[in-house]
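Lecture 7, part B: from sequences to assemblies.

Below are the input chains for today's worked example.
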Amino acid sequence: MKNKPFHFYTQYYLVQLLGIKARNPEELLKGIKKVPESSIYYHTHKFLQQHLYLSPEPPNDFGYWTTNVINLKELGEAFTSIDTISFKNLEDLRKEFIRILENYIKNKRYTVSCPEGQEFHFMSCKTFVFPTKYIAYDLKDFMKIIGKVSINSLYLHIFEARLRKGINGNDFSEWFKKIGKNKLAKEVTKLDPYTITLEGLREKILGLVSKYA
Amino acid sequence: MPDIKDYIDIVGKDKIGDLYFLADKLQNKSILNINSTAVGGGVAEILSRMVPLLKQLGVNARWDVIKGDEKFFNITKKMHNALHGINTKLIKEDFDYFIEVNRRNSEEMNLSSDIFFIHDPQPIALIEKRKKAKGQWAWRCHIDFTTPQKEVMEFLKSYIKKYDATVFSAPAFARKDIKIPQMLISPSIDPLSDKNRELPKETIEKTLEKFNIDKERPIVTQISRFDYLKDPLGVIKVYKKVKKYVDCQLVLAGGGATDDPEGMQVLNEVKDAASNDKDIHIIFLPPGSDIEINALQRASDIVLQKSLKEGFGLTVAEALWKSKPVIASAVGGIPLQITHKYSGILTYSINGTSHFLKELLNNPEYANKLGQNGHEHIKNNFLITRHLRDYLLLFLSLFHKEDIVYFD
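Predicted structure of the full complex, as structure tokens:
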């Protein structure tokens, strides 16, 4: 066989509670500084899987809580507009949240704390990755499969690959390169998966692959 | 009792296939669930559905119950209240008796398993048998843990720390002073139960006829026990504010024990507050009225859950599953089920609830979109199949300590 086949995997996660909560931006900053990387990952990616049907996607958990619970729209917008795709690892992403928060706290004119019961609860996740029955040997196979793999599988190969495995791109673009489809790999790498729904992303990938299959 | 394969039509073949895959990874592990009652109560209800489904997936799961006398259960009832923050005094003799009953059970029970899944405080001290029984131990807390009485909490903590993991139903129940892993596993609804399955149009219409509800005008419903914490009086105030602008009907339906004096008092106050408004339908439902509840939810245009306090509030998931737009208080587990303005509306007051109720009644398209999003959210996150998957992942997590676990 000429090409190494692409084996589709899938993933699920179990949510872990850290027992750390925040009532205001100061406590949020303290929490963001000390929680494990997996917590930063969870709070910036959970929405993508839990609310995959929404368009546009709701923001990350920090942005949602700041905007909708403590009603700090400006801070919320700063969180929401973080260009997640531009960060190569979770530590850099954490630093960006810290930078925004420190800047806000330094310049703020008043303090606000949420009422009891509305606190931000820090969580993290334990991810379980396992193989599916789907294997693509060429782009034609890939096209057929991408239309039917689960959202969890799509999510794993796009998001987990980037921030948790440190790949510049995603599992799909890596495989396209290996089979000599560099142009396709480049186009798939350029997609910003944070600004479209997972179903929308599936359509876009399908569209791109069909041009080269 | 449904077969695991019956859920394929709802969640898809792949999701059920994934359950089989995860179950297969537990092939050589036995799991023993232990709680304090075989019938009645939410925990027994969950176990009576989950254990057979786990078995169908090929998991060697068992369920056993500890034995206790009246004195023991009076003590555990006091503990339960104390954990809810109610001022209850437990004396040393109570704690000693609790320990003694647990010890006796640990001697009499067949404690041989690879995984022990202990539910709620009553059997928590069985962990003392760990050295002999070996295995991995997880403690599942089904109750609200936000404002526990210190003395009882300290007592329980002395056992919790001996477990490998704990499981809570809502993020607010997690504690900083618990050092073992704390997992979040939310409760779920069963889409094939009488309360949630699809109903023929005729059943819905007959239910409306039975309760004299006009199907031509908008129906706003709250399903809940007649309990101050569910704020039925607040719901009537909301309705009265909205009724000035929109000709709607209010349905307040729910059960409650007839020997519960407070329940009867609340029901009477609700009837007084409704006075002679023929468009307020107060329906006291006997136990086993699941199909009526299902039909009332399905017939509704908007569903409210204006609780002042909630454990998890699964009535919200039930209504969203039926694609109903829901306006609910941001308490307990409700914010997990509703993302404000995406999959429903979260409110904090009577005025806020009235405002959004009016808005949704006047904008059925927007309301419909919220209901559709809500349905998808429940389908992805709050069905019994997700609950099963979380339990399988929890059991696997006891043998894999790393953040990312790879299986081949």
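Note for the exam: Chain A touches chain B at residues 10, 12-20, 36, 38, 49-54, 58, 64, 68, 117-119, 121, 123-124, 126-132, 150, 164 (CB under 8 Å). Keep this in mind when comparing with the next example.
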